[in-house]
Give the backbone structure.
Amino acid sequence: MKKGTNTKRKMSAIVALALAGMVTFTAGIQSYGIPKNEVPVAYDIKSSLERAYEDFTMEEYDANFIAETEEVEIINIYDSEDKLIKSIKLVGDDVIEDAKTKKLLNKADFLTSYSNTSIYKIN
């Protein structure tokens, strides 16, 4: 009886291995090459560049350029919770004329300066 069950187990294992081999082989054959849903796309670079150039026109963009000889100084004033209260941009020899802004700057403590930007904080 033991010989019969051993033979059945061997046959079942052989059939399972053969089935697994067939499934793997079939899947390998079907996945070779370019799938049907991925068709190569032709891309026209010249027309894309022309279209991008037409979309980008200088008329749409207004830029106010400061002369290179004039220095720009930016003063940022923060409150005690590190929220920006006021940002001041001074060009050349400009001075702060607004009375409220002057009071804020006088209340604030100077923290640091980097490049053309000064940072003040009100405690």
Notes: The longest strand covers residues 84-91. The two ends are 94 Å apart (CA to CA). DSSP finds three helices and four strands in the chain. The chain has a mean pLDDT of 79.
